[in-house]
Amino acid sequence: MKSKTLDERIDAAQERAKQFSNEPHLVKAEYRPEPGLELLILTLNDGARLLVPREDLPELKNATPEQATDVTVIMLGTAVWWPQLDDGIYFPEFLEFRWGNTRLVDRRDGGSRYRFEGLE
């Protein structure tokens, strides 16, 4: 069996990524350190926004406002990362385990893998 060239592997990876283009994924993460109302704002590819209070983010327990605002979307929109904290959140797991299965529904009908109730 002939091994694939780097270009062939890149092309194959790009084709696989196209399969997920319609899946809900993050396009922006922004932390707002407003006194009394600190929020992580997660924007999805369909325009929906999730507002997550700081108290729901143990990753930020000891973070300064400067550390918390240094947040980025990684892994093709499936995670957020705080480089100064060397910590992050895997988005599907965050939805399922932090907010329960009522927010994240596994579809077995061949459609989208995730569906956000109340956001469609």
Task: Please outline the helices and strands.
Layout: H1 6-18, E1 26-34, E2 37-44, E3 49-53, H2 65-69, E4 72-74, E5 79-82, E6 87-90, H3 91-99, E7 104-106, E8 114-116
Antiparallel strand pairs: 1-2, 2-3, 4-5, 5-6, 7-8
Specify the helix fraction band: 10-25%
User: How far apart are the first and last residues' alpha carbons, in Å?
Assistant: 45 Å
Computed structural class: alpha+beta
CATH architecture: 2-Layer Sandwich
User: What is the count of DSSP helices, taking H or I runs of 4+ residues?
Assistant: 3
What is the CATH T-level topology?
NE0471 N-terminal domain-like
Number of domains: 1
CATH class: Alpha Beta
| Rg result | 17 Å
Fraction in beta strands: 25-35%
Query: Strand count, sense and closure of the main sheet?
Result: 3 strands, antiparallel
Molecular structure report:
The structure is a single chain. With 120 residues, the protein is an alpha+beta fold. The chain has one domain: NE0471 N-terminal domain-like (2-Layer Sandwich). 22% of the residues lie in helices and 32% in strands. It contains 3 helices and 8 strands; from the N terminus they run H-E-E-E-H-E-E-E-H-E-E. The protein has helices spanning 6-18, 65-69, 91-99; strands at residues 26-34, 37-44, 49-53, 72-74, 79-82, 87-90, 104-106, 114-116. The strands form 3 sheets. A 3-stranded antiparallel beta sheet has the order 1-2-3. Mean pLDDT is 80; it is low at 102-120.
